[in-house]
Amino acid sequence: MICPHCRRDRRQRERAGHTCSNCRRVFALDPKIDPGRLHDLKFRELVEKSTPDGLRITVEQLYWMNERRLYRFPTGLQRRGTVTAGTLLAVVTVITASLSVGIGGPALLLLGPLALLFGSLSYRQFRGTGRYHPPQPFRPRIALNDFEQRVVPRWRQVYGSLPNGLVDGAPAAAVPVRPEDPRAVVLCELPGVVAFLRANGFAERHGVLLLQEPGQVPAGLPVVLVRDLSLAALARATELRAGLTGRRVVDCGLLPRSVEMPARMVRLRKEGSPWLRPPGVLADSRAWRRLPEQERNWLCGNWSSPLIALPPVKLMALVTKAVERAVAAPAVPLAKAPAERVESAAETRRRAERIGFLTWPQPLPAPRAGADAPAAAPRRTEGGR
Asked: Is residue 247 within 8 Å of residue 223, measured between CB atoms?
């Protein structure tokens, strides 16, 4: 581990008691002793990476960022076997069987079972090329309570305060913010997300009410529902939407299609979880029926994804976009112009004739004979000039 004070690389026996043997100064975290596999430099680096442009995060968000750092996200479904492994095992099987038959005697008793073992493993590899392992849930390395009770207090004990951009979250979540002229209501029953939004002054910057209790929602304002992704969370959102009839409600949450592989998302599921049935309020909703069958099965399989586990920048962008949709004026359909009467071909021709459009010139009238005929104009001759 590199000492955060003198920047010297120290082995474990050279940093006993959280003290560097070179500079004799105390550091906060030892990756071999403290949970989370963090040292002081990595702790500060993780906070700086999660707080660009003055963004502030909570301890719970830092915990999830560290868990995402330690977890190896799968890039897709993994096959149960490969052709390469099957071929190598088959070659080993042939060689082992040839040696056992060629040598004979005790070698047959020793190498024969090994040939059978390698042959069965080769068969399993070839058979597994067309099969896939079931998707595995996200497994955190440590519990959130351990991170909050052992890592953060240790940092405060050594340095006195948390790094810039990292807040505790509990005091900010308890202070309500009510702008004078709110444009919308952000209803969020997730304490961690509320603490994150209030730590960044979301209500003041966007002119919205940030509430946790549905009974505090005033009438006449559009509402943004912030939720997790789970069967229970969707049922709760449907129930809240039913109680907010007569106003614009915008859903702010993830869908199963946005967290499926290969997305680098936190997908949780308890081992041995039973198959769940959707509650009646959710099963009767149009939003549930619009979901594809694969996504409904994913939710009924007791899979979930907490919203607080999103990277802080993406979480802030998600809520901001939902507020912009809520306060945007609904599109007003344009009034259709009255249909004009189609004139007939005869009317079109008469209108063209009145203005002289595409009409042939009329022939001159013939000269009249007799007394009524006009006198001919005198013709000029050369002598008369």
From this structure: yes
